[in-house]
Amino acid sequence: MKNKILVGALALTIMFAGTQAFAATITPADLSNRIESMYSRMATVMDRFDDLITRAQASGRDVTQAQNLLQTAVAKRATLKADIDTLKAMFGTATAFTPEMRAQVIKVKNDFIDLKQTVATVRDYLKTALEAYRASNPVTVE
C-alpha cells in the first residue's frame, strides 16, 4: 500500500514538475486524462481503507478515529473532484494552456497533495492500530 502512495507522489512530481520541453508537449487533453487516472487510483486506495475499517469494526475494534480521518479524506476528495471538473470544463477542446487553466492546474495539484497527506495520515493511523492490536493479541503456534 505504501508503494502505491509513493507511486502517486512520483506521478504528481512528474506531472507537475516536468521540464519545459515536457510541458511544451503535453496538451490539456493529455493532462486531463492523467489527472482522472490519478484521481481514480486515489479513490481505489481510499475504498480499500474503507473496507479495512469496516472489517475492523465488524470484528469489534474501535475505529472511530480512523472513520473520522477517512471522512476528512472523503471531503477533500469531493473538493478535488469539483476542482477537476472545473478544470476539465476549462480545457474543453483547447489545444494550449491559458493562464486561467494553469492557475486551476495548480489548485488541483495542491488539492491532490492535501488529499495525499490526509490519506497518508489514515494509513499511518491504521498501521499503528494494527501493530498495537498484534502486540496485545500475539499469535501462538502450537
Question: How would you portray this structure in words?
Answer:
- This protein has helices spanning 2-16, 20-25, 28-58, 64-91, 99-136.
- It is mainly alpha-helical and 142 residues long.
- The longest helix is centred in the last third of the chain and has 38 residues, at 99-136.
- The radius of gyration is 19 Å and the shape is elongated.
Question: Which features does this protein show?
Answer:
single chain; 142 residues; mainly alpha
Binned, the helix content reads over 70%
Largest sheet: none
Return residue spans where pLDDT drops below 50 for at least 5 consecutive residues: none
Q: Count of helical segments?
A: 5
Element layout with pairings:
Layout: H1 2-16, H2 20-25, H3 28-58, H4 64-91, H5 99-136
Helix pairs in contact: 1-3, 1-5, 3-4, 3-5, 4-5
Summary, kept brief:
This protein has 142 residues and is mostly helical.
